[in-house]
Amino acid sequence: MVQLQYLPVGVQGAVKLDEVRAEFAAIEFPFADEQSHPDRNAVLAARSTIQSAVVDNEFLADCIALELKLISATGFPRGLTPFLTIPDLGIRFAFGYWPPGGTPGPHEHIAWTITAVCRNELEVQTFDRAESYRRRELVPKNHFSAVAGRVGYIYEPSIHAPINTSADWSVSLHVSSPRGGEPIEDCAELAGLSTPRRRRLPPSTDPYSRVVATRARTQRVHVLARALAGMNVAAVPRLLDECAALGSHSTRKLAARTRGGTTALDERGAYVLRRTHPDLMLSRRIVGDTVALMTETTAGPVEDLAMNVVAADAIAYAAKEPLFDARDLPGRITDEERILIAEALEDSGLFTREA
Ligand SMILES: [Fe+2]
Questions:
Q1: Distance of CA 221 from the midpoint of ligand 1 (Å)
Q2: Which domains does the chain have, with CATH numbers?
Q3: Within 13 Å, how many C-alpha atoms sit on residue 335's CB side?
Q4: pLDDT tens digits, residue range 307-344?
Q5: What spacing in Å lies between the alpha carbon of 162 and ligand 1's midpoint?
């Protein structure tokens, strides 16, 4: 049984997103409303197209442009939310973001899926599905290292566990069947296997969920901005501006540097921060020579920010004021330190910069 194969990148002509869509339209995939899977040859043809496309920065920039639209429209899409679904075929294109150590754990695919590493690298452990179900425990099969540009696919139902073992973020592109989210029937419980349902967080009305989403959004947008900054593509300046609008100070600085300007000149002027959700309950806590900003959540108090106690007055001010200019942070601190504290507040997701 073929589980997940990573093949060498082919040296073929450039393929943009529109061309990829045109090539997919020519492949014999079932229509989205048909309850059938494509032939293996159709998935192999699609993999070949993606293999050529993923090494083309124009294609990746096209995909990132749609991803930024999705992020802008949704705030922060959870899981593998597609930035593109091909009409009629229902084939979904989505980015996956992998922080250092990030993994969804061992999980099962019952429908075809193509995975391309776009940035950095991933390690993939596959499991012998039939033997795993027979023994009721995960039975390792193969292990792959996949660097940027490598493309793998799954055709038969398979179990695998990708992980980012590197110290930097990785990004993957997932092109998958519209049947990918269907429930898995007639399978026994398998220890150690995570299911999409278990991995998906329920919607939350807790104001803190907006903090988590804000932090996730700015981290991911920054990864996209770093990818864009290394591309020699006409759309990059416009897309970096979009990243800067959706990201945090790090992304604004990166966009400014890439444009050839000095870093974050605007933040030497007004740098106004607003509490990410008006109902967030913040408080200051001092322990020894450390000051922390605490947040009340439905799961109890959370500490998202801790720094030297020299920032105690500034943190107390941030805990009290829902909207303030970094230049007004009180305490015996320098203007440079005021900016650093404001940047840490923004990185925490508890505060968002006013445009
Ligand atoms: Fe997977």
A1: 22
A2: 17-199 (2.60.120.10), 207-353 (3.90.930)
A3: 6
A4: 999 999 999 999 999 999 999 999 999 999 999 999 99
A5: 7
Going from the Cα of 107 to the center of ligand 1, the distance in angstroms, rounded, reads 6
User: What are the residue ranges of helices labelled H in 170-295?
Assistant: 196-199, 207-229, 236-246, 249-258
- Contacts (Cβ under 8 Å, ≥6 apart) of 29: 38, 42, 46, 89, 91
CA distances from residue 113 to 36, 329, 332 in whole angstroms, order as listed:
14, 50, 56
Residue type at 100 in one-letter notation: P
- In the reported structure, the alpha carbon of residue 190 is separated from the centroid of ligand 1 by a whole-number distance in angstroms of 16
Q: What does the pLDDT look like over 48-62, one tens digit per residue?
A: 999 999 999 999 999
- Residue 126 CA to ligand 1 center (angstroms) comes to 10
Residue with tokens 């950095």, as numbered in its chain: 120
* Residue 16 structure tokens: 């943009």
Enter the pTM of the model: 0.88
